[in-house]
Specification:
Blueprint (H helix, E strand, L loop, with lengths): L1 E4 L5 H9 L4 E2 L11 E6 L8 H9 L4 E8 L10 H10 L2 E7 L4 H8 L3
Parallel strand pairs: 1-2, 1-3, 3-4, 4-5
Bound molecules: flavin mononucleotide (FMN).
Amino acid sequence: MKIVYASRTGNVQKLIDRLGVEAVKITNGDEKVEGDYLLITYTDGAGIIPKTVEQFIAANREGLKAAAVSGNSERHPDTFCGAAEKLEVKYGVKIIAKFEKDGYESVDQAIKALL
Ligand SMILES: Cc1cc2nc3c(=O)[nH]c(=O)nc-3n(C[C@H](O)[C@H](O)[C@H](O)COP(=O)(O)O)c2cc1C
């Protein structure tokens, strides 16, 4: 499965770099991908899906099969990884991981298992 990701401050980018996998970065939401993909995204203000990610999904809805979501529980305890629940409810996508910042070994493994 392809990996598509969004990273604003570098945490998800760090995860992608550590995995050493090919991945498509969402920058303005206008990107197009063919086939199934795993979305890895950060959580934005008050637990929402970033706007550029929403735009991207609107144009690439069919291929969205799974998602992994980054957040920060120290700064945002009440809405930690809130984008995950929204992705699940709005798009019926399977959430394979919710994690702090750039993640950890179990996140790497969950992602690798889908590739
Ligand atoms: C404006 C802003 C709002 C955020 N809101 C949330 C939030 O509601 N819940 C959460 O878990 N993390 C929140 N975060 C934290 C980011 O999702 C987290 O730091 C993530 O690892 C960032 O990934 P990136 O560095 O790849 O952009 C927020 C960060 C910013 C800058």
